Amino acid sequence: MRKQIVGVKQFAVVLLALSVVFLATVAMAEEVGFKDVEGAAVTIDVITDINQETRVITLKNEAGEKRSFTAGPEVRNFAQLKRGDFVIAEYYQGFAVALEPSGSGLKERISELTAQRAKEGEKPGVQVTTSIYAAAEVTGIDLEHRVVSLEGAKGVLVLKVQDDIDLAQVEVGQEVEALYTESFAVSVIPAPKLSGKVTMKVKAVALGVGVEWGEGMFSMYDGTKHGFKVTGLTLVDVGISGVEANGEVYNLVEAKDLEGTYIVGEAGAALVGGGSALVMKNSKGVVLKLQSVQKGVRLTFAGQGLKISLK
After folding, report:
1. Are 44 and 30 in contact (CB under 8 A)?
2. Is the peptide bond before 101 cis (omega within 30 degrees of 0)?
3. DSSP one-letter code for 31
4. What is the DSSP string of 139-202?
5. How many other C-beta atoms lie within 10 A of the C-beta of residue 219?
6. What is d(CA 259, CA 198) in angstroms, rounded to the nearest whole number?
7. Tens-place pLDDT, residues 171-226
8. Going from the N-terminus, what domains does the chain have, and what CATH number goes with each?
9. With a threshold of 0.85, does the pTM exceed it?
10. Using alpha carbons only, what angle is made at residue 71 by residues 68 and 77, rounded to the nearest 5 degrees?
């Protein structure tokens, strides 16, 4: 019996307000890079620690904050990465490797399950070096995208579910036990050469409402300049009627690749250099890192994402 998603959109609103990202639509990457990784969170940071045996990589952003990821088997260039490299990483904030009815004894089998998942060369498989156990109630199921929302002592969790878990056996309202990785990387590649930079101005912004209009200028690596229009940017600060932002663009081949809808994976990220930094990508794999010029201004996005069109 197919279950429909219940309450995930409402949860997403709450999570964005709390500056916590959980991803509701994802597709596992089959190759290194950005192929088919829809909705995964994106970050551009420097490697401060990397363990080739456990495949745990630690990245530091411009604010000095660190976050560790377990690099899944999809990250095929892991051996070439080293400390000090700047990389673009795509990851799931929560990734369930086990989901069973309450009372199944999952907690007692964690060590065995973790060892089994860590075996290389077997499919389906996820390398697990750190894991978190949670007992919770199922509050929503999205069978199409294999995403579940759970509510328990740790609060609300929205998790991408491992492919070999039978979601047909899971129901809304059911008490379950879950084992999940807090951050699971599906793509980590050396940051490519900068494709260009953008400057952006948006006006007539109301609290929690997308921009009425916005425009910007893209300076491409070849020296050409291109004007563009933007919609979908929102602010979470009271009394702000407009914002200026600067950004860096990666993975762009020609100017028209800048167009499209950008999905943010890390909305409301920690303030960087006095402004809020967001990293996002469009369907062509173009990555945009955007930061507000005004000190203390926090940026986020409307539910449909940030839309850019060339003039």
Report:
1. no
2. no
3. S
4. EEEETTTTEEEEEETTEEEEEEE-TTS-GGG--TT-EEEEEEES-EEEEEEEPPPP-EEEEEEE
5. 14
6. 13
7. 999 999 998 888 888 889 898 899 999 998 876 555 545 455 688 999 999 999 99
8. 1-191 (no CATH), 196-310 (2.40.128)
9. no
10. 125
